[in-house]
Amino acid sequence: MSNLFSRLLTKQVPMRWLGTFRQLFGGAATWITFAILIFTAVTAWNTPTAIVIREYLPWLSLGIFVALIFLAMAVAIWIEHKFIQPAIMLYWNRMHFKHGNPQQEQLDRIEIKLDKLLESHDEPAEHNDNDN
C-alpha cells in the first residue's frame, strides 16, 4: 500500500499543453510584474505612509526613490542569476535525464556499443611465437 501511495505522489504525468501554457504564462508574467511594480511604486510615492516617511527622510526625493527601486530590482536579478537559475538548471537537467531525453537514449546506446567494443578488445589475442 505504501508503494502505491508513493507512486501516486511521485509519478509525473507529461502534459504538453500544460507545459506550453505554463511556459508562455510565466514569460508574460515577467513583463506584467514589471508593469505592476512601476504602477505600485508611483502609487506608493503618494500614500500617506510615504509622506510621513519623507518627513523623517527629507533627502528621499522621487529620483532617489526610483533609484532604490531599480537597485532592488538589480539585486533581485543578481540573486536570480547567481543562485536561482543554477538551481533551476540542475532541476531541469534531472527531469530531462529521467523523462525520455532522446540525447540520453543515444548516449545509453553508445555506451552499450562501447562496452561491447571494449570487451572484444580486452579479449586476449592468440599470438604465434613463430612470427618473431
Descriptive tags:
5 helices, mainly alpha, 0% strand, 80% helix, 132 residues
Nutshell version of this structure?
This protein has helices at residues 2-10, 16-45, 48-56, 62-98, 102-122. By secondary structure, the protein is mostly helical.
Topology (elements, then pairings):
Layout: H1 2-10, H2 16-45, H3 48-56, H4 62-98, H5 102-122
Describe this structure in words.
The protein has helices at residues 2-10, 16-45, 48-56, 62-98, 102-122. 0% of the residues are buried. The protein is elongated and about 90 Å long. The protein has 132 residues and is an all-alpha fold. It is built from 5 helices and no strands. The model has no long low-confidence stretch (mean pLDDT 84). It has 2 domains: 1-60, no CATH class; 61-121, no CATH class.
Strand % is under 5%
What integer is the average pLDDT? 84
Q: How would a crystallographer describe the biggest sheet?
A: none
Helix content: over 70%
Gyration radius, rounded: 30 Å
N-to-C series of helices and strands: HHHHH
Distance separating the two termini: 70 Å
Helix-strand makeup class: mainly alpha
Let me know the number of strands: 0
Unreliable spans: none
